[in-house]
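User: Round two. Same drill as before: sequence, then structure, for each protein.

Assistant: Same drill it is. First protein:
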Amino acid sequence: MANRLSIVVVEADRERARSIVDSLRDAGDFDISVISEVTGLARHVSNRDPDVVLVDMTSPSRDSIEELTLASGPLERPVAMFVDRSDDGLTKAAIEAGVSAYVVDGLRPDRIKPIMDAAIARFHMFHRIRLELETTKRALEERKVIDRAKGLLMKARGIDEDAAYALLRKTAMDQGRKVVDVAEALVTAAGLLS
């Protein structure tokens, strides 16, 4: 995130929006903009491309939570949602939609900054976990391709697993490619020939 945090506050009530903005200004030097209308929210948030989105809703519904959180890009940035009333189903829907902080009856000026900080920290933690999961899935898929290619070489050449891997590695080095790329090409070619 940039040095000066940009924050979009989604709040229809002018007085509540002013209270949120004043609290944030007291807590630090932020670039703050307010969106007071939910219509076209995705476009407004996208145009501003904020670091954080703070959403204040008096009485949320499952549809409004999903619309607001999806429009706010919870997988792209931290989203903190303040609501006056909720139930277990709405809380679960908000968390599943990717909201980093879901606070019931918690819109007090002195709590906004700490909750926003917690939402940012939680967002970054889950972002790291998602990246690690993607990396692990990719490594597993690559491993599967390499194992299939080794199996093809072992069968075609009558060699053991270590020799098959050594052949894949040597071919990759000779061609300036990754082992997985050579393995993929071999598996694809074998698929075409069978």
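Second protein:
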Amino acid sequence: MTTLPWLWIPLTIFAALAQTVRNTAQRRLTDDLGALGATLVRFFYGMPILALWLGLVIGVGGQALPPLTTGFAIWVLVAALSQMAGTALLLRAMAARSFAIGLVYSKSEVIQVALFSVVFLGERLSLVTAFAIVLATLGVVLLSPRPKSAVPIRGWADPAALFGLASGSAFAISVVGYRGATLALDAGSPFLGAAGTLFWSQLAQTVLLGAWLLVRTPAVVLGVLREWRISLFAGIAGAAASIANVTALALEPASHVRTLILIEVLFTYFVSLRIFRETISRREIAGIVLVIAGVALVLSSAN
């Protein structure tokens, strides 16, 4: 892994771009399929891509997937369940307010990722990285909307804020779970470790969420199959984002990866302006500048 010290940077940037494409497609599906239906799209249509990627990695690398352990299974379930919850909550946040604002609230995950990584994975957090995280998070706060009422807390207590913040917590847990799973698998290669982790986690997500919807609301599953064109697009983009993101997590501490991936905010605001015709204020521009500064600090401090 040490022979590829900078590979996590382009992988994370690509993951951010692919996530923006996936979120855009899922956001368009939410009105017809609901938050859970649009969430299933990501897993169901991405599963064949991840299976193909695992086969390719094994074939090219010439290494078999290591035996699965109890520790790996626990980390995978933690990652899978929390990612499902985070995706559904994020889509609810976007539907409640706007595409960009929903995602901005969810990016509160970066501080939680840093804390969870220290507590559960034993990773070290340098002062420069901690300052970068605070700076980028302050940018995220500026990107959140000003409260319209005289009571400031109401701005953070509306449905978009609550769903977004909850999605950030769920995504933070999933990030730590994915890194924990790749380390527990001990595949000897970040590519094989990430591919194996993704295959098993997304298989669990597809089966669990698909079975739940089949029992509770089978019409949603039929809708997922009916909207196969845009769903396939979302699934491919989601699989590409997951491959890049989890491989980056296998190479670099989670706090670095999740701070850099905040550049997704820039891509999201571009989509918000160009596709959804939403507006951007000077305050939001200042927030974007702080996010960029935080990302730059993380890049400068990374080994």
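Residues 263 and 292 are 7 Å apart (CA to CA).

User: Perfect.
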